[in-house]
Design a protein that fits this description.
It is a single chain. The chain has 527 residues and is an alpha+beta fold. The chain is built from 13 helices and 17 strands. Strand 1 and strand 2 form a beta hairpin. Helix 8 runs antiparallel to helix 9, helix 9 runs parallel beside helix 13 and helix 10 packs parallel to helix 11. The N and C termini lie far apart (135 Å).
């Protein structure tokens, strides 16, 4: 039964080689097995193994013998199995083993492919991330937050790095935008130079000062390449060679024709004291220079204008006080001269105060709707007698259907009184002074204007004097102007009144033929 369950041939052999029992043959008919190799080895070593041809069953067998003792007896238990069965078992085992190995290999290859594909995708993401960073983009949460392996930790660190760089870059861009806005809005020209004098930063105002064309790349250009002006070369040399840390650099220079700049400079150093470059700030002080010159001229002119009548008044007063003339007619003549110069001083003082108020903006202009024809009529009424004494013909021509003027009546009357007064003073006997009022054509959607032109037949104004004729105390013929009683401020007052009304003033003149002064004032557009 055991032999059938095991599929083996079992033989029990006595110590002397007799077969005590066999699962396949009758033991009494079997020969003595004492000489069998496996029995001999088992008796000697406890176990024995042999492969040989069995004369009993007539095929090769694998024998395994075990030496047993018990109850005072020795025996050999031998188990035999045909080699074909063993080979079949080995073949089946080998086949199963190979199948298992093949299946395991296939599974291993599939697992390796899946892992390799997953790893490849992660490395592709790393390559994609590096490309984004190289292109200047720092993506947010580019890698998913998963896993705890080394690559996952690397991905998380790259995410954190990208976030930090993005925040720092945004802060840098914000600071740069703020600096650019400040530089762009500055009215001063700002230049930042490296230690060799090459441009690092240049704001729009500085570009305009140095006439840099729009779109030109100025970075790393030498300031000497942008300007050949010798003063610029001198400034740069002084800045690069002087020790500005001890004393600030400041200098006023004339770079363009009649354009003055105050240049302030400071050297940039790092914490270690190394020279990093220079900052230059160009302040346009042309207007300040012009105002200083005008103030100086104004003081000189006022002093001169005051000195002349004051000297005359003082001289005649001293004469009347200390050595009065015996003839009362002479005394009266002296008093008339004093009165005339006093009147001139009074008019000069009034004109100075008026001009000062107009220039400072202290004058409040009332806005009234005025009829231009009526305004001109009221002005001419002031001069009928004066014109009649010189036999000057006063004419006026007002176009029909004109809109109203919007302006200050008193100031506009003062404006045209000054113009007509000048025209009559400089027009010779039997000359003509005419006033015409028209509406100017409207161009490109502009507002309509009323033009009032004052023409005379006087000596005219030289062309070279026309640009300066409205300056304070500017006279073409100084001696004649004083003889006519002018203060030299009339046209300056006219110019400021026109500007206060947002109008336009133009003067045309031809020598020996006369002068035309045109005043254009905004018309009221309300229906």
């Amino acid at each position: 039964q055991l032999s059938g369950e095991l599929g083996s041939w079992i033989t029990v052999i006595a110590a002397d080689g007799r077969v005590l029992g066999d699962s396949a043959e009758v033991s009494e008919q079997m020969e003595n097995h004492a000489n069998r190799p496996e029995v001999i080895e088992a008796m000697r070593n406890g176990t024995g193994t042999a492969i040989r041809f069995s004369t009993t069953v007539r095929y090769n067998m694998l024998y395994r013998a075990f030496h047993q003792t018990g109850a005072g007896q020795e025996r050999i238990v031998r188990v035999a199995m045909p080699l074909t069965d063993i080979e079949n078992i080995i073949r089946s085992f080998r086949k199963s083993l190979l199948s298992g190995l093949a299946l395991a290999s296939a599974f291993g290859l599939l697992l390796a492919w899946a892992f390799s594909h997953h790893l490849s995708r992660r490395f592709q993401r790393l390559v994609q991330f590096s490309g984004e960073v190289a292109g200047g983009s720092f993506p947010h949460d580019f890698f998913p937050n998963r896993g705890t392996d080394e690559i996952a930790r690397l991905e998380q660190h790259l995410n954190d790095m990208s976030q930090k760089i993005r925040e720092n870059l945004a802060q840098v861009i914000a600071e740069k935008d703020k600096s650019d806005s400040i530089l762009r809005c500055m009215i001063e020209g700002v230049l930042v130079l490296d230690p060799r004098g090459q441009v690092l930063v240049m704001n729009e105002r500085a570009k305009a000062m140095f006439h840099v064309p729009d779109g030109k790349d100025i970075h790393w250009l030498s300031i000497l390449e942008m300007s050949r002006h010798p003063e610029v070369h001198k400034i740069l040399e002084e800045i690069l060679t002087s020790n500005l840390s001890e004393q600030p650099y400041s200098k006023e220079v004339e770079l363009d024709e009649e354009r003055w700049f105050r240049v302030n400079a400071v050297r940039l150093r790092n914490k270690g004291g190394s020279f990093l470059g220079s900052i230059l700030v160009f302040h346009d002080v042309t207007d300040i220079k012009r105002f200083e010159s005008m103030r100086s001229d104004f003081v000189a002119n006022v002093s001169h204008e005051l000195r002349t009548p004051l000297t005359a008044i003082r001289g005649y007063v001293e004469t009347l006080l200390h050595t009065p003339p015996p003839d009362p007619q002479d005394s009266r003549q002296f008093l008339e001269i004093i009165d005339r110069h006093s009147d001139r001083l009074s008019r000069l003082t009034e004109d100075l105060l008026t001009l000062s108020d107009l220039e400072s903006g202290k004058v409040h202009l009332s806005q009234q709707l005025l009829d231009a024809g009526n305004l001109i009529q009221r002005v001419l009424e002031v001069f009928w007698d004066q014109a009649a004494r010189k036999k000057i013909k006063l004419t006026q021509e007002v176009a029909p259907g004109l809109p109203k003027l919007a302006g200050d009546l008193d100031r506009l009357q003062q404006l045209f009184i000054n113009l007509v007064d000048n025209a009559i003073k400089y027009t010779p006997l039997e000359g003509v002074v005419s006033l015409t009022v028209t509406q100017t054509a409207v161009h490109n959607g502009g507002a309509p204007h009323i033009e009032i032109a004052v023409r005379d037949t006087g000596p005219g104004i030289p062309e070279k004097d026309l640009p300066r004729i409205t300056e304070r105390f500017y006279r073409v013929d100084k001696a004649r102007s004083r003889d006519l009683g002018g203060t030299g401020l009339g046209l300056a007052i006219v110019k400021h009144i026109v500007q206060a009304h947002k109008g336009e003033l133009s003067i045309e003149s031809t020598l020996k033929k006369g002068t035309t002064v045109r005043v254009r004032l905004p018309a009221d557009t309300a229906k």
